[in-house]
Specification:
CATH superfamily of the largest domain: Aldolase class I
Largest sheet: 8 strands, parallel, barrel
Low-confidence stretches: none
Number of domains: 2
Oligomer: single chain
Strand content: 15-25%
Strand order of the largest sheet: 7-8-9-10-11-12-13-14
Mean pLDDT: 96
Helix content: 25-40%
CATH topology of the largest domain: TIM Barrel
Distance between the termini: 44 Å
Bound molecules: phosphoenolpyruvate, manganese (II) ion
């Protein structure tokens, strides 16, 4: 429910309404505009009637929220969310490219790649220390040693880092190293993990589940936001369809649809969607043209010997070439991609 306060409502009246809502067990999200204040109230709406909230001084109206994703949706917030990470903003004019290998394999490999992608114009370093592999026998990541290597690369390059957490027990550990916590496609509906990540103050990169509808994806964002963490970057990374020519099917329409439904920034993962380095360029360009706020791209110095996702990783030279091409695509849609 949205509680709309009168134009001349005093701060005391607004605070009293909020206090009453909190006493009734609601989570409150006040938004103060130039003229009015509205309070988003999430909880059992029947209590609002029985406790006469609409009769409290200063209250003008109560409007039910139709969408189940109240915080992620546009009913409470129409303006796009801009997420600040150091001196980088996601969701503003600039297209942000995150790049790096699928997994951290060694200090040498990661640092070398980190400097290469930085020089090519990437603004955030990616890398997996905890890998959610389909096979229990496949490389599972260097875990905390991998996080330490990423942190070293962060200090050496000055770029923020994004890495995945797969287990609730590791959330604090991962949060202590990383600038952005990634929740992978396979965990998009791991509600405990969403809640734990929501309790951190770190921005969250939320990948769309392999078989998730856009509404389910936004509800996953809602889980995080309900804990008070509003800094969420949505990531479309391809969904399962009947098509087998690509690893997943990049749902480019998800960019347009989510831009209509949510104020959260949306990025595209052209690597896990296409599943081949050959498609990364087209899918990246399509993503930016469709209105995405950024990309997350896998880059490896030796893709044939990569421990994870080599076939979809770009070589440094292909990445550099792509970044140059993306500058023009960004300009064509009135965005900037400074290299
Ligand atoms: C990844 O980014 O390395 C990854 C595992 O992605 P996804 O969760 O989209 O499969
Ligand atoms: Mn990968």
């Amino acid at each position: 429910m949205i509680i709309v306060m009168k134009d001349d409502a005093t701060q005391e009246q607004i605070s009293k309404v909020e206090e009453r809502l909190i006493d009734l067990g609601f989570k409150t999200h006040p938004i103060t505009g130039d003229v009015k204040t509205v309070i988003g109230a999430i909880g059992d709406k029947r209590l609002l009637k029985t406790h006469g909230i609409s009769l409290m001084p200063g209250v003008e109206d109560m409007i039910p929220i139709m969408k189940p994703y109240k915080l992620a949706g546009k009913e409470l917030q129409k303006t796009p969310s801009v997420i600040n990470i150091g001196n980088i903003t996601i969701g503003g004019d600039e297209i942000i490219v995150m790049a790096g290998p699928c997994a951290i394999e060694s200090e040498k490999q990661y640092l070398e790649t980190a400097f290469i992608v930085k020089e090519a114009g990437a603004k955030i370093l990616r890398g997996g220390a905890f890998k959610p592999r389909s096979s229990p026998y496949a490389f599972q990541g260097l875990e905390e040693d991998g996080l330490k290597i990423m942190y070293e690369a962060r200090q050496a390059t000055g770029l923020p880092i994004v890495t995945e957490v797969v287990d609730t027990r590791d959330v604090d550990l991962v949060a202590s190293y990383t600038d952005i916590i990634q929740i992978g496609a396979r965990n998009m509906q791991n509600f405990k993990l969403l809640t734990e990540c929501g309790a951190t103050k770190k921005p969250i990169l939320l990948k769309r589940g392999l078989c998730a509808t856009i509404e389910e994806w936004l509800m996953a964002a809602e889980y995080i936001m309900a804990e008070g963490n509003k800094d969420i970057i949505l990531c479309e990374r391809g969904i399962r369809t009947y098509e087998t020519a690509t690893r997943n099917t990049l749902d480019i329409s998800a960019v347009a649809v989510s831009k209509e439904l949510t104020h959260l920034p949306v990025i595209i993962d052209p690597s896990h969607s296409g599943g081949s380095w050959k498609y990364v360029s087209s899918l990246s360009k399509a993503g930016i043209a469709a209105g995405a706020d950024g990309l997350i791209i896998e880059v490896h110095t030796d893709p044939t010997n990569a421990m994870c996702d080599g076939p979809q990783s770009l070589t440094p030279s292909d990445f550099r070439r792509l970044m140059n091409e993306l500058v023009r695509v960004s300009e064509a849609v009135d965005r900037k991609l400074p290299l």
